[in-house]
Amino acid sequence: MDVMAQPTYEWRSPQREWREADLSGLPEDGNRYEIVDGSLHLTPPPGYGHQELADELRMALRASVPAGWRVIRAAGLRAAGSNLIPDITVLKPTAPTDGMWIEAVDVALVVEVESPSSRRQDRFTKPSLYAEAGIPAYWRVERGDFGPVVYRYELVKSVHYNLLGTVGPDDPIQVDEPWPMRLDPSAWPR
Predict the structure, then answer these.
(1) Which 3 state secondary structure label does DSSP give 19?
(2) Chain-centre distance for alpha carbon 185
(3) How many helices (H) does the chain have, and how many strands (E)?
(4) What is the separation of C-alpha 61 from the centre of its chain, rounded to a whole number of angstroms?
(5) Residue 90: which of 114, 62, 128, 113 has the closest Cα?
(6) For residue 187, what is the DSSP state?
(7) How far apart (Å, rounded) are the C-alpha atoms in residues 7 and 25?
(8) Please, is 9 exposed, middle or buried when counting C-beta atoms within 10 Å of its C-beta (0-12, 13-18, 19+)?
(9) Helix (H/G/I), strand (E/B), else coil: 106
(10) Left (φ > 0), alpha (ψ -120 to 50) or beta: where does 143 sit?
(11) How far apart are CA 20 and CA 151, in angstroms?
């Protein structure tokens, strides 16, 4: 006989739009809880491949980081009236060094590593919110057949992102955002 496990958390949706303060009452269960336009969005924990790829990219960014800049994994970000959690966030040197939620004005780059469960969010929802919040650069990383591919975008008139180009495992390049560095996905996990 199959017995479904009973949830260990009793959900009580607020009788209004979700707010940042509501997030503190949710379980710490590995899921990613975000608020988009007053609605709660739940994403299951990322798989090991996703986490390894995000870690490799974070290490690549940290290897060339100028003094004062910070590269953070899964930081809370206030963006365009929403509370989001990018896979990687690059903070400007002027950003505060404490707190639970980062303001978009303190961010130079956000990176999303795409997974099947986050594809729509990473391609459509989050980039539009990041652009509306004025974040200068956005990278989306996909697992291609031959290795990771980085789609690099720049903000245009605080309205949307334009594709600067892609970087795959066979074409490392010099990039200027968020600082001049060599971007080489060939060393990252497939």
Answers:
(1) coil
(2) 18
(3) 4, 13
(4) 14
(5) 62
(6) G
(7) 16
(8) exposed
(9) helix
(10) beta
(11) 30
Domains recognised in the chain with CATH numbers: 46-187 (3.90.1570.10)
DSSP 117-148: TTHHIIIIIHHHHHHHHT-SEEEEEEEETTEE
Q: Residues 109-163: pLDDT tens digits?
A: 999 999 888 888 888 999 999 999 999 999 999 987 888 999 999 999 878 999 9
Beta bridge partners of 94: none
- Rounded to whole angstroms, the Cα distance separating 177 from 136 reads 9
Closest CA to 61 of 137, 145, 120: 137
- 25: tokens are 């009452």
* CA-based nearest residue to 159, from 129, 118, 116, 179: 129
- 114 touches 123 (CB < 8 A): yes
pLDDT digits (tens, 9 = 90+) for 163-185: 999 999 888 889 999 999 998 88
Residue written as tokens 């003094």?
Answer: 67
Whether the CB-CB separation of 167 and 173 falls below 8 Å is answered with yes
